[in-house]
Amino acid sequence: MRLISRLFESEDSSRRRRTPRDPKHLDSTDSSTSSPLSEATGSSSLHSSLSLQTLPSVPSLQKISSETFAVTVTVSHSVTSSFKLRERSLPVTCLAVNGGYLFAVSGHEVSIYDRAMCAHLDTFNGHDPFSGSVKSVGFSGDKIFTAHQDGKIGVWKLTAKNGYKQLTTLPTLNDRLRRFALPKNYVQVRRHRKRLWIEHADAVSALAVNNGFVYSVSWDKTLKIWRASDLRCKESIKAHDDAVNAVAVSANGTVYTGSADRRIRVWAKPADSKRHELVATLEKHKSAVNALALNDDGSVLFSGSCDRSILVWEREDNSNYMSVSGALRGHDKAILTLFNVSDLLLSGSADRTVRVWRRGIDGSYSCLAVLSGHTKPVKSLAAVIDSESDGVISIVSGSLDGEVKCWKVSITKPDNSIFKDLTL
Length: 424
Description:
The protein has helices at 4-7, 11-16, 173-179; strands spanning 74-84, 92-98, 101-106, 109-114, 119-124, 134-140, 143-148, 153-159, 163-170, 186-190, 193-196, 204-210, 213-218, 222-227, 232-238, 244-249, 255-259, 263-268, 277-283, 289-294, 300-305, 310-315, 322-328, 335-341, 344-349, 353-359, 365-372, 378-385, 393-399, 403-412. It is mainly β and 424 residues long.
């Protein structure tokens, strides 16, 4: 893997990096929660040392005092199912939920499961190993988009007769034919080598879908924007100085990209423009940015990095600019994946654990649970809140050990009522 050395960067190298001290520093510790479950069901201690050597100028946010909440929360969690995607235990590189279905990726194959029963239903792309591993999956209407190691994006559709059928790959042949004759449509990608600007020149690392558009980022340092209706590439942006690892898009169309160059960049399209423009560069991480996630209304951005920290960025007023409000610490190794559901943030790490964080009314956070059981780094997460289960959260984690684990997490008050703000 291109960035494997960055993903599993040693703690010693992190400690050697020094940043100026900020006079504002909040000493904090993880908040412990009681759990009625025994060790056999996955209950684990929430006391963990905070990596304050990392980004010492950024205050920790996971301190919740008795004044913050008048009640103590009880958290219980258990593994409801665990299975391998393939006999050879290839890494699980991506998980995605669409309706009642779970899409799980291992190597170049995409497997579909009934989410409730964890029953295998179908597999597609099983006969095309030449496209390389699938790194991300997105959905727009009845189309499924898959990001591939070979720099292409697969477009699929479920048909009644043939199951999942590949419609085309992006860029489409028609899009290529429209542009190949004009020299202005070519860009330099390497010395003595040019490609059409609509083509990714390296692995497509992540996808995001929003309002009929598909956003793809790549190790070729670019962000590309595709219209899902006609599958045409509308924009290509040289987004970073190194490989781009993550992309997130808010409901209003603001785009966030995270890169191995340690930066997060914010892109927006002015009302009188046809192209996105750079509106902000967020710089606090000291290592490659691996994961991004937005809260439901897009006012808070979470970023995870090889420096072992999750930074929390909050929007200032109504602008697109965000400033860092603090860090969530507790993982011992690189943060590889983030997922936001309702007021909960899930984080998966190279330390082989999943942490569940919850935002308090004062903006601070508590680590409600640490889910352990994987034998290798946790690379992908997905989650939904089951309305049928009175607010119990279903979490799915995928690891480089080739295993998918399905968890049930229940967050209750002392009177055993589910938190009312945990809504779909």
